Each structure stands twice: as C-alpha cells, then as structure tokens.
Q: What sequence folds into this?
C-alpha cells in the first residue's frame, strides 16, 4: 500500500519470479544440483516464501525442477521422450515392447471401460497390471482390460493370477488380428498405487493415456496407462519422437 | 494426538478426502453446480481448510472441478475430446482445420525450435499465431514456426503482418509436399499471453503439443500448441477419439 504502481502489472508476481528463476537455472545451475533452501531463495529474490513456492511449483510443472523427499529441490534433467503411439500398431506384449507384466486379476473395470468393452457394468474382465521402465526408471503404470471374449482359448490351467497369468493373457491376445487403435491423452493425478510404483506422492500430476484396441469389429481391449508427467514427454509418430526439450518461454540468447 | 491409530494409514488425508468428495460429486451434484464454500465443506467433512484445498486441487487436476474467478468452484462437464493427431497428415490451415490464424510476425524462435529448423540461433522465422475454438470455447493457442525456405514464393507484397499475413504463409506452405509428421505431448504451465487467450490464470497446467512437419527431407515447420488441460482430452488415431471420460478410481457401482 505504501508504493504507487505507475503501470498496470499484467502478470502475477510469482510468474515474473518464475521467469527470473528460469534464467538463473539456465545460467548458474547444472542438472542434478540442489537449490538453496526456500528461505535463502526468497531472500535473494526479495519475495515472500508463498510467492517463491508458487514459482517453484510452476517450474516443477514445466519439468525444470524436481522436488524429492529427503533431498530437496534439484534441477531436473531434460524430459525423456517415451514412444506412446506409433504408426505400426501392435498388441501389448508384442516383441520389442518395454512393458513388464506384474499381475493379473479378474475384476470389474471402471464403468467407462466397461461401456467401451460392452461387458456390462458388473462383468469381470482380465485386468493385467504392467509397468514400464525407461533408462532404469519407472515411467508408467498400466491397467490393461481384456474381456474373456478376446482370449477365448485362455485356459483355466494357466496360473490363476500373478505375472505368469498376465503373460498368458498377453500371449492369447496376440492371436487376434489387430485392426487398429486410437488413443487419448489427458491430465490426471496419481492414485495411491500408481504413485507408489512411480515413486511419486499420491495426487502428483500424471499424463493418462487411454488406448482402445480394435479387433473383430469391436473394442477388444482397453489400456489405461499413467505416465509420470515430470519426467516424460510422450511421443507419437513414425520417427519415434520429436527430439526437443520444449520450453516456449525460453528464447535463444 | 488424542486418538490412537490402530492401522497404518498409507494414504495422505487429502487423498482419502478426494475419494469421498468424488463420491459426493457423483451422487449429489450435477454439472455446472456451484460447490458450497470452503469453510462449509471443511466443516461437513471434518477436515482442515488446508486439507480440503489440497483435495480440491486434485479434483481440478482430474477435470472434475473448475475454479473460476467470481463464480467459485463448479462441477466440471466431461472433458472434450479434441483431435490432435490423425493418420491422415495435413498441413496447418488445410481444409477442415478448425484453427483461426490471428497474427504473423518475423521473430527468432526458441532455441530448441531453431535447432529443429536448422535456422541458426539468431535466424528469424515466420511465426504464425493461431487459436482453436471447439464448441465455442477457446481450447488451444499455437505458435507455428515457418522458415523462409519453406515458403520461398511468399511475396513481400502480401500483408506485412496480422491475420492476412498468417493466411498467406499458410497458403504458401500448402505448396510443399508433406512427407510426415511427429508429435510430442508434455505437461507445461500457461504463459501470460496463452493464459489470457485461453481464459486461464498464468501458470495453470496445460498440455503442450509439439508437432514437427517433414517435407523435402527436412523439418519444414514446427508447431507448439498449448491446450487447456482442464477441459481437453487430446485424441490420436483414425477414429478421431476415444469416447471415454476417464477416471481410473471410479468403478461401476
């Protein structure tokens, strides 16, 4: 209240601070380096702790910073390009797939998945849990929903659950002729189980990829994969990825 | 401290609250309805305001709630499926495109874009600004970077800037034979200008889609599009979208 603002200020304070911090990250810090604590940073930039925290949150959203329990805030490496959609459609579990099946249960899927599979709201489907490692890091967790009608030859003699059962379901799925797939990407927050597997806190922002697999003129399987939004850039297309660490605010100096 | 917890609590409080709130949203509220204020909600669920706020933030991330200035917190409609990648590749501005060009300037692109276009860190490129409306709502803002070499016949007589110039650049681009494209999706935060156009606060979570267009054996143009993460589900694939409002936590009742 004691100062007079001569010009309109179109940007909130934390937004300006974010820009200043981004420049400091580019010029003074290297990947993996631990940032000074919040008190020192707030003092250096002459802002309130709350403003600083908002700016740090933005930089975390943009993948520039990582906050890790017991470590503090570090400068993040560039995001990894992770191939999600390619022009050659293949079934989950096909050769070259970098997903690891860990479990399989019979369960009632979420209502929206049940509607796609036309299994009815109370019908159980094979639910394969897989996760994906890239460069030794867990990047995604998946639930793959497969109705009985898509794996008719699946034998009850196969392992009733666990990774062996998951592999049996995937193997049977390969027998169907895949006609196509479509995908959707949206923002979500990590559920408790996904968070644990992805080494994130519950509620952390994630990218949800829903893939619908078409065979025999219907939706033969639905995959819902949860990707870490902090470390992953999802790529689509023939070349397997746009090699760009994107930052629309950063210009050539 | 006065109560004894007999069981380990693996989930943070706000996460549990989020689950409870989700059920309340499903059963008691309809789309567009304004939620009670934070004080009343906190009292109803017997939690601290800070816990409530965290849970509301999660639900906003998941697209279940919208917070709007001057209105309050409302129950969000299901996200819109917005087609981002299709199997038929076309140039920006091709027939059927629902983007509106608004401006075109000559500018030095971000360093990462300059590297893809091989225009050098100080080279200026035609920078077309467009935005996209779906169902009367702005859903995305785009910067399309086109080097001179991709539009060699572009005349200086054409409008020097503005929407007319943008249309001239797009028209010239159509002359090149498009060989393919690839795309990447990642989480970002809205810059000040994008935020204004998309009716969001600066720093709001957005989905950044980077598209590289290939022609004449090189990258002929790069588009960086900022999609509202609260209202959009980005779809990829032939059928134009997975018709699913995804919520991995919500199961059939």
A:
């Amino acid at each position: 209240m004691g100062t007079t603002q001569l010009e309109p200020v179109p940007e909130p304070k934390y937004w300006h601070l974010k820009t200043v911090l981004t420049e400091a990250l580019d010029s003074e810090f290297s990947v993996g380096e631990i940032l000074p604590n919040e008190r020192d940073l707030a003092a250096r930039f002459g802002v309130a702790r709350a403003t600083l925290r908002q700016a740090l949150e933005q930089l975390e959203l943009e993948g520039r910073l990582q906050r890790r329990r017991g470590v503090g805030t570090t400068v993040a490496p560039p995001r990894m390009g992770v191939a999600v959609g390619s022009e050659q459609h293949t079934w989950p579990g096909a050769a070259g797939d970098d997903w690891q099946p860990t479990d399989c249960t019979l369960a009632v899927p979420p209502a929206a998945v049940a509607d796609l599979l036309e299994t009815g709201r109370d019908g159980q489907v094979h639910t394969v849990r897989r996760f994906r490692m890239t460069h030794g890091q867990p990047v995604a967790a998946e639930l793959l929903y497969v109705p009985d009608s898509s794996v008719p030859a699946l034998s009850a003699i196969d392992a009733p659950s666990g990774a062996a059962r998951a592999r049996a379901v995937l193997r049977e799925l390969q027998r169907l002729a895949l006609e196509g797939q479509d995908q959707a990407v949206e923002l979500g927050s990590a559920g408790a189980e996904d968070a644990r597997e992805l080494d994130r806190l519950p509620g952390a922002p994630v990218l949800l990829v829903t893939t619908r697999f078409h065979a025999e003129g219907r939706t033969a399987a639905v995959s819902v994969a949860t990707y870490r939004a902090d470390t992953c850039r999802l790529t689509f297309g023939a070349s397997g990825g746009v090699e760009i660490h994107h930052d629309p605010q950063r210009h050539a100096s």
